[in-house]
Design a protein that fits this description.
The structure is a homotetramer of 442-residue chains. Chain A has 442 residues and is an alpha/beta fold. Chain A contains 16 helices and 12 strands. In chain A, helix 4 packs antiparallel against helix 12 and helix 8 runs antiparallel to helix 9. The first copy, chain A, is globular and about 55 Å long. At the B-D interface, strand 9 of B face strand 9 of D.
């Protein structure tokens, strides 16, 4: 990392026009004393130009109000922004929310769960995003090879897997708001401050389990499981429907599931709920699309100079703050424990050593160092392995543009699992997303 | 093994009244020259007494016709039969076919696949059978500790898992007719004799894959995959509906699935087919029940002194012959390669070393020695891991009589995967099988 | 851990009459504000009674001088001391220094390296100590089952291995001053404060490597290797002869060895050096024996009320301070990183998951959580594995009192490796230590 | 493999002028009925031209006497011989016996064991041979890519490791006469035919253990261990001094060591024995050099038309026969069990999956399929790991021509283990072998 004399850190945010960016800006502002960001470059594509400028204007008002010397830049050319960057965050959406609406509605039309990061929808988001992310990573390797790339684009786990397997730099970390949401949910459940709670996280992105929960360092896992069994929620992240767990099941499971596990342990109920939303034209992407529009209206307000409270309902709360926290810990070698997506390296002994996992790690200037979690409990190992197989085949399909591998990935996904219907679904989705899948249509 | 002077081998068959037994008898007759069986003890329970005598009478006519000095004994007390046994085969059905009918119909009633060895049905067959099998194994450990126990009771993989984890002797091998059926199917496809074909099998029982196919030692896997893709069948075992594989899928899969994989890769189609059978009162168990009755009518015929050809339609063809082949190879230290269920011991590197797997093994007098298969291909590893998790939790549930673990097993099974419906299903099935689940109702 | 209202922590130190104890007392005094020890029980055996009282008196003067309310107790009956303990430290020497003199001199007499923790000497120290340590652990499991047992009795790695394999409680941690000595040595080399340096430690006790060295979080391993190659020392612990490393070797090794690696990478030179000391009657144990006597003379001085500076020359410097630091981090859930001996649990992927390793770990109230270190570099993996084999066979020999396993352990040790001479050596050492090896002479 | 219509197999033997070749020719003659070799190409280098012609003439007399239509060809240009080859055997000696004399004498001069395949001598043989073997393998990949390469050049394990890591074709198998010698030794001990005995071999080349011994399929390991303990020999291979094992040691070891283990378990005695031979100018290479000269005199005899009995004393007995046996089993898809050097692939779970091991394997037309051996016993795992580390570092040193890695390999070898002396030794040996180490002197 370059010597900092009269200058601070340079951050580049690819997808800077995202509605999440104000949280990121707020995160940098409140940490300014220990994390002296001097330049924040917001990068976006032509289609996002208008949003980018709205965000940049708001950001400038925010730093002005906070009276910190962070300069905000915008560009549509990431290669202009990257040189000299210390950290690059990526929060892109290839195909914008329209593509997400398709990811959710088309599977539902065929009777399958339609979701942004799981099943057919998650696979297509990966197929569209991975080639773009790899291109960004290539530019980083050329223009700012020492920078850390912090990705919070979904599906974060598959993107980390792709970066580890096909990427150009090693300094790539994936982030998600789900684990931090669980820790905050547990803290809320206990009525204590977040920093008194720690959870041992192990698994994959959106497939992560809390193996142990600690309050002031004491293991209180059983108590939290009992709370879950009695219908309490242990997650502050409300991205998906929050149906109660079956008490006997959660007790036998013995670990804390994440909200997304509902797709795998409550498959029918989740599907029914989604099908109702589908009929009403209210699948999550459609709801988010409306929320986004409202948010940008709010952001345009020249009098707004803080992150507006409405953003927290957006679903991705804590994402950007988690990113700032991570950047801060790397920059200051804090050695605190955070759950991130990184190379397994034996931390979860039952998963391949070279694959991407989501795991509690000590965050150092040299990057995340996963804590040894041992074997996954037998009851959850199988599902995690199955999703890892799906992820690995999907990543290969995305990289190679392979129709056969995409079909294979879809069929081995436990939310699809039906070969002939999978093929029909695949063909329709490929056609729908054709514009963003050049590798499949060359 | 005892010295054979004027005496031959003693075989004890628990569940001797099974309709399969004539195949077993035929197997011993045709191998008599190298496998000198002198005593075959057929053991059954009180409810099976009539069938037992029908089978024993047929067996006596068969050995008489073949002019081999195999003596047939019957008993309802296995402890009378076991002393001095060299091999004990187990082919029991706790709850008889009535229980199987429930295993198939009750899940279907709730919209889940109902099947003898998979999903809820497979789990309940395991819950009923494991305690009984462990008791048999305990008797063996006392009365004939050097005997090999050859199990072909379903679900064969979970039973092997239970025997390895909770059993009293190490000499336990599980058998299935699925892999041998695939080898024979490939041979038929190629129009060659079975012994020119060899398949590298790796996976779990009813979850086994053919990783490589050889003709006269040459790897012809790709050619067989292409045959499968063009709609040909590579299995001689017709226990389940033989729907064609999706060509692009099977090519991307790259290995030979077993017929039961249809439940996981064609979930919807298989369910629809079963639901139609359900409505007609023709689920597999009901069909088998009728076939059984017809078979026993045939067996009663005093003029019948060979295995009747109708047995081959029964579904379990080659099971008993596979058992004779295995016994022969152990007894004569043949060192030929056969797929069996045994302790993994590193043969499939991605599965725990101590778990039961179905794997091509060299058969020696000292038992099966698995061939190293390396890692499972990434596309299939996940599903195999998931079923292994299900198996391990089920085995614990059976051993402990744990309601919570049974519920957990059901929910992590990819054919169920819905917690609230799983609980309803579990409760109904527990009640239906109450008589055979003493550990759950103590 | 019990609620602390008006009371502080209770520490029990088995082997309290050790010359190291003043460092321990000093450690508690200087941490009193955050680690409120109210009772320190010093336990020793009859033969150590006089030393125990000298130490206890000094300790009382020290706490008085420091004006902290730590009460010092002594007893010859550990079962009197243990009830209610929060932490039990063990620093015993079965057979006292006389036994160590034999451990060093007898092997040298036969031309083998004679050393407290390596080779034949290390093995005999383990054989004498393990049964006693297991008895202590058994008492802890009965009298204060929630207490953490912190062992710094040598050979610390084999003792941890024995506790993990045969012990009665899980809360057992082994400590050594070698890794902390390396960190301090590196800091000294760099001229910076210790807390700016961090080393990734992985291996076994006295067989640990520094895989990476960080200054303020930046990886400076190569720079430190170059320093070692140019003859600088990276260890503040001077227990053994500090011969320079061969520059080309250390560069190819690529990681930081610990001082004890000289026995394995400079076998001949170390042996020659020791043989000279042997002839002069100045083997390390003899030197230490004299130092001890001098120390106790100093300790007797009624005017002494601090840890005397002479103690730092004793060889075990930082041992006790490391123990206090560890206790403090557990008590206060500090989540700092310390190297300890604990269960591997996958942290070093190339070693068995259940064995004892020495590894950088995050220290929490719930105990140490090892950081994932991945595979050991190929160049050092072999030696570490070999010593782990030696350790495991030795631990079994100690537990079973097995002559054959003791012989086996000696022969597979790379410092012995000669079967007939090993047997002669073994017989002589067994006879010499007969009194302390009841399991071998029953 | 090509279709055989009017033609038989083509074998190419690189190093055809070796004194072992008559055994190879005999092996092909006696198997002619099932292994129809039509062409045997003997290839050698200019310096070996005279020997090559002597051998070729003898071979021609042998096939004529046996009346089999095997044609013998000679060439000094392997690229002339390779096209169309079905099997290529390699039995080369880079630097001839003069180099081996240096490999043995120079280490002994410095007080280290001097041996062809172990310690410094083994390392230098690897450094000289690996680049040449890789070149041969490259030619094979171009000129006869479907051919199997069967290497019995020493050090066979490191060469297999190099071929697996840096080679151009996958069809590479390493052979050694040590395991077959043990099986034959056990058979002799028992007074039974070789084919009634089977040993489970696992380990590395010249570092292989017999984990279990079977007579007619029954496990008689304990009985053989007792025989070894009572001073009997279980090896027919007499390459090295056959000192008796210490009875208590061998019983505790519990597995059958190979003769070369004496270097690691009887280090001092072996060194003393060698030092005496050194003084007398009778190190093994010198003895062999004389034997070779005598053999070639015998081979020249125009009346000799069989393999002369004197060859069996040469030390490498059974090597060539083992090669013929292996070729025969591959060609005829025999599926018999033979110990070979091949990729581990999980067969020995405690070793890396991708490294070369020596392990009992089923030999098929598709190559060797290792039997799962599970974990190595703890007592031997360490030494095997250490030698594997040495092998891997040596292979890298050979490939890269790295002085530092060569020094590292030497120091981590347990027969050297002394850094400063290792450097002196390394420098002297590099100079002595300069001509054959172009990568180190570029």
């Amino acid at each position: 990392m370059k010597e900092l004399i009269n200058m601070g850190l340079k951050i580049v945010t690819i997808g800077g026009g995202s509605s999440y960016t104000p949280e990121l800006v707020e995160g940098f502002i409140k940490r300014y004393d220990e994390l002296p960001v001097s330049e924040l470059w917001l990068v976006d594509i032509e289609e996002g130009k208008e949003k980018l400028e709205i965000i940049a204007d708001l950001a400038r008002r925010m730093v002005k109000k906070a009276d910190v010397p962070i300069q905000i830049f915008t560009t549509l050319d990431r290669r202009e922004a990257l040189p000299g960057a210390d950290f690059v965050t990526t929060q892109i959406r290839v195909g914008l929310l329209d593509a997400r609406i398709k990811d959710e509605r088309i599977p539902l039309k065929h009777g399958f769960i339609g979701q942004e990061t799981n099943g057919a929808g998650g696979m297509f988001k990966a197929l569209r995003t991975i080639p773009v992310i790899l291109d960004i990573n290539k530019d980083i390797s050329e223009l700012c090879p020492d920078a850390w790339m912090i990705n919070f684009t979904n599906p974060s786990g598959m993107i980390e897997e792709a970066l580890l397997k096909y990427g150009y730099t090693d300094k790539v970390i994936g982030l998600c708001n789900v684990p931090i949401g669980i820790e905050m949910g547990v803290a809320k459940l206990l009525g204590v401050a977040h920093d008194r709670v720690r959870v041992d996280f192990a698994g994959l992105n959106h497939m992560v389990f809390g193996l142990n929960v600690y309050l002031d360092g004491e293991n209180i896992t059983k108590r939290i499981i009992d709370d879950l069994a009695s219908g309490k929620s242990a997650s502050e992240v409300k991205n998906i429907n929050d149906i109660n767990w079956e008490p006997d099941f959660i007790r036998a499971l013995g670990v804390i599931p994440c909200p997304y596990h509902r797709y795998y342990f409550m498959r029918d109920e989740m599907l029914q709920t989604e099908l109702e939303e589908f009929k009403k034209g209210e699948v999550r992407a459609e709801v988010v699309s409306r929320l986004e529009k409202e948010l940008f209206e709010i952001y345009k307000d020249k009098n707004l100079d803080i992150k507006p409270p409405q953003l927290e309902q957006r679903g991705g709360a804590y994402y950007s703050d988690a990113a700032c926290r991570l950047i801060n810990s790397i920059y200051n070698d804090k050695k605190d424990i955070q759950p991130v997506n990184t190379r397994n390296n034996g931390a979860i002994t039952s998963l391949p050593h070279d694959c991407a996992v989501e795991v509690s790690s000590v965050i150092t200037k040299d990057g995340p160092k996963p804590l040894s979690m041992g074997e996954l409990p037998v009851a959850v190992n199988g599902l995690v392995q199955q999703i890892k197989s799906f992820e690995r085949v999907t990543v290969e399909a995305a990289y190679e543009g392979s129709y056969e591998k995409a079909l294979l990935a879809l069929i081995i996904n436990p939310l699809v699992a039906s070969d002939k219907k999978a093929k029909i679904l695949l063909d329709e989705m490929l056609e729908a997303h054709k514009k963003y899948l050049p590798k499949f249509f060359k």
